[in-house]
Amino acid sequence: MVKSLQEPLVYIDGEFVPKSKAAISVFDHGLLYGDGVFEGIRAYNGSIFKFKEHLDRLYASAHSLLLKIPLSRDEMKAAVIETLKRNSMKDAYIRLVVTRGVGDLGVDPKKCAKPTVFIIVGSISVVPKEVAEKGIKTMITWVRRDPVDGTSHEVKSLNYLNSILAKLEANTYGMDEAIFLTSQGYLCEGTAENIFVIMGNDMWSPPAYTGALPGITKTAVTEVANKLGLKVEERLITAHELFNANEVFFTGTGAEVIPVTEVNGRKIGDGKPGMVTLKIGSEFRKYAADPANGEKYA
Ligand code: PXG
Q1: What are the tens digits of pLDDT across the range 210-269?
Q2: Structural Rg of the chain based on CA atoms
Q3: I want to staple 119 with a disulfide (CB 3.0 to 4.6 A). Which of 11, 35, 108, 277 is the partner?
Q4: Whether residue 96 has its Cβ less than 6 Å from ligand 1
Q5: CA 255 to ligand 1 center in whole angstroms
């Protein structure tokens, strides 16, 4: 009884703060300049899905940005688990954020003495369940994915304006999601999802060198597909190939597996979620529910 009346607790720099009081400084460079890194992780039934992989990526993103995370990996692990336990959550969406920290009104990170770490646990749904089940309508956006020699999305940074511009366009045109091409015109990813294309017996996905985030769900789905006897090839994909695919789907921590049934007014396949996508979706759910693919904490 008492638990349900309690406000959710947020971890901020070693303290557990009620949600309504959870705040960071307006001088934090995470806010002022989008200078920081994050992870979005799911816990399924008391097990943190691919926790090691998410921590590896967090520390790799931070390394690229010369951002020294003030917690060791073991300390970070313990902080995430403690936040879940304090909130009595067995199924959760975990948002783990490390910013450059408090600085002054100049872009130079040198002035930021100590990175800020916060952990929020809650829930997430990228599109409503009914929409995801029917398949989503998408459009290729006018916005090109940030290039690999710029603010590459290989780094999971706090800079999501590139994705937000695309999402705004999708919203404007009543689409569920936007699809990015690279500045060279090849398929890249969604705003917060990787993309897969099924062409006959082949399954393709764009490589990370297109500037897409190396998705943890993508790797898991590749493993699931391989177990079903399907090989995934990472290759450059054109818009023409995308329009003429038999099936298309997105993967991501938030999205899980979502069928794409329309791209810029072109039906994909027969305009309904494809058989292979549905099979991969159901196998992925089993895979995610298996504690062997995560870290059990409750
Ligand atoms: N590309 C980008 C740009 C992403 O941000 C993915 C691909 C899929 O990666 P994972 O490792 O999750 O399979 C992401 C994931 C959010 C949110 O709050 C964003 C992500 C994950 C969870 C929540 O919008 N990004």
Answers
A1: 999 999 999 999 999 999 999 999 999 999 999 999 999 999 999 999 999 999 999 999
A2: 20
A3: 11
A4: no
A5: 8
CATH classification of the domain holding 63:
3.30.470.10
Contact 153 CB / ligand 1 (< 6 Å): yes
pLDDT digits 0-9 by tens, 79-118:
999 999 999 999 999 999 999 999 999 999 999 999 999 9
User: How many Å from the N-terminal Cα to the C-terminal Cα in the chain?
Assistant: 20
Closest residue CA from atom 8 of ligand 1: 252
Range of 162's domain?
129-289
Distance CA 247, CA 269 (A): 6
pTM for the whole structure: 0.96
Same domain, 16 and 94: yes
Q: How far is the CA of 193 from the centre of ligand 1 (A)?
A: 5
